Amino acid sequence: MSAVPILLYHSVSDNPPDWIAPFTVRPRVFAEQLDDLVRAEVTVVPLRRLLAAIRGGPPLPARAAVLTFDDGFADFYWTVAPMLAERELPATLFVTTGAIHPPGGRPNGSVLPPADMLNWRQVAGLDAYGVEIGGHSRTHPHLDTLTNQHLSDEVVLCKHELEDALGHSVANYAYPHGYNSAAVRRKVQRAGWDSACAVVNAFSSTADDTLRLARLTVRADTPRSVFRCWLRGEGAPDAPTRDSLSTRGWRLYRRARARFTDQPPGRPDD
């Protein structure tokens, strides 16, 4: 069971809005991290290849990693994609469909604060180029606090919107903020999603749960030494892991708060 870092990025920018700045990596640092991957002889594989290995398919290279990006920031199109293409690295982009700009209009709505987001033409272009597009809900809520109908909207309709826009099926989902529960995972599976990424801040592996894949969050303040440790399979626990008592308690608190407010508190470490 080899440790596989599924690296989670958000924005890659020199001038992010304040709300996403702690989760934004500067382009210069991102380039260094990609070069560190190459120098460390880590093979970046598509998410589907990790999933195949988990299900008993062809084994992964001795040192493998997966690149994922959440939300759908416009800098993926202008900054990230060219860097990946230069190094011939695959990646999965999980988009919040309500934050994507439709042709000639404004986004359909999400709880994300204002930011420069992708438009549907760019999403389709990235898909055509070979970037895997996945779902990240419609409005980016805390899924584990929602009613059944609201949860269906965020899981099922997100899939329909992406498939209508791209003209083909989409397979992989990522939970906003990483928040999920047994009920959420069942809903995702029944909606036809093949896998789902959480956060967990642990290494994935061929023993991981395909509906709760562990990822490592790359933040603005992630030291290069820590990043290099991850590439060696060091510095984090291995999945699968169980929810801690604090995680379960935080979920109960957010559910209780959601009954009295429209928006659950805070942006977590996702």
Automatic annotation (TrEMBL):
CDD domains: CE4_NodB_like_5s_6s (cd10918). GO terms for biological process: carbohydrate metabolic process. Gene3D superfamilies: Glycoside hydrolase/deacetylase. InterPro entries: Glyco_hydro/deAcase_b/a-brl, NODB_dom, Polysacch_Deacetylase. One of its GO terms (cellular component) is extracellular region. It is found in: Secreted. GO terms for molecular function: hydrolase activity, acting on carbon-nitrogen (but not peptide) bonds. Residues 63-270 form the NodB homology domain. This is Polysaccharide deacetylase family protein. It comes from Streptacidiphilus fuscans.
